[in-house]
Amino acid sequence: MTDGLPAVPGLPMTRGRCPFDPAPELGVLRADHPVARMEFPDGHVGWLVTGYTQVRALLSDPRMSSRGEALRSPIPLPMATDRTEPAPGMFTAMDPPEHTRYRRAVAGWFSARRTRTLEPRLKELAERHLDAMGAGKGESPVDLVTGFAEPMAASVICELLGVPLSERPAFARAIKALFAVHSSAEEAIAGWHALTGLLRGLVEAKRAEPADDLLATLVTEGRLTDEELVTVGSVLLTAGYDTSANMIALGTFALLEHPEQSAALAADTSLAERAVEELLRYLTVVHAGGIRAVGEDLEFEGHRMAAGDAVSLSFAAANRDPVLCALPDELDVTREPVPHLAFGHGIHQCVGQQLARLELRVAFAALFGRFPGLRLGIPAAEVRTRPDMIIYGVQELPVTW
Fold first, then answer.
1. Nearest of 41, 24, 29, 22 to residue 5 by alpha carbon
2. pLDDT of residue 81
3. pLDDT tens digits for 225-241?
4. Which residues of the chain have pLDDT under 70?
5. Omega of the bond prior to 9 within 30 degrees of 0, cis?
6. What pLDDT is attached to residue 78?
7. Cα 354 to the center of its chain, rounded Å
8. Closest residue by Cα to residue 230 from 199, 209, 208, 191
9. Cα–Cα distances in angstroms (integers) from residue 184 to residues 132, 208, 252, 287, in the given order
10. Cα(35)–Cα(301) distance, integer angstroms
11. Which of 54, 87, 209, 350 has the fewest CB atoms inside 10 Å of its own CB, making it the most exposed?
12. Which tens digit of pLDDT belongs to each residue from 291-319?
């Protein structure tokens, strides 16, 4: 075995007693072997990287490739069995210059300056969904996932892309089928076809009646083919919906399980900005991490990595590394923000991160400002989490106030 290191038998995903902590084995590996060998589901022996410094370095290393046909998933997925060339527009699975061209086409819509202009509308959406959630409270608790987290996330990304209100439930169903690890290959493929079919119809509608939204603008500009438009739309929609919805719900769960933290936020909602950065670091909902392939033979941290080797980068472990901050396993919403890796790093860093940050700040400030007495409606041990999903979160979160 290269370097004499035994291979970890798969990516550790089973959490311990705390639903907010990464798998305990990741911390042990980070301390002893921050760069370790790992066996992937298809039998390939590649690398698992858990240290913050090492993960960050590889994310910015141009010798690391993101091309879809070179990548291997660290967890079994129904649609990850065949390594094929990415579809036109799948810029998350491309290297420059293809990646650069697509990213530039959408980056302006997610700039910090433009994102700031969206804040009043996001506040309106948050208050509207909280009104609806509050109206639904009777004798029984209300599910925060379906009552606030999912509707808020869907509204924000769908308004940006220009998805009609009537079609949003269909989009949500397709995304859930895609992201569930337990979906069969047929279910996942059906979810992808449903999503792209909906987007294809949307592209045609935008061409017939131009509008002031991201997808309509891309259609009008005419720089991308219909196939590219559909794929780019799918990437943005899936990324913007599932991650935000689960951050809102899981973040609320974490805050309620740390009552001194939720009380601090309820007493001073201006803490929302710091709270969001801390929750992103502490929770890391992209718990399967990032994936890369070694593009050329290289030496890294004393290890020989061969071209073609698969690399699994654990954002969850890296964000709990003591080199990043003091007491990394503690949640502290007053913590000075640190350069966490929840959005990745380097050229593939999440293009929508500024919008995601704003959405989360607005959501948490509105939620705890409206319901300062928010509390769980069931024992914490009964809250069902989503360890079988690519994006970690909770299935439901019954709350009362």
1. 29
2. 47
3. 999 999 999 999 888 99
4. 1-4, 78-83, 179-185
5. no
6. 60
7. 13
8. 199
9. 35, 36, 31, 21
10. 8
11. 209
12. 999 999 999 999 999 999 999 999 999 99
Q: Which amino acid is at 332?
A: D
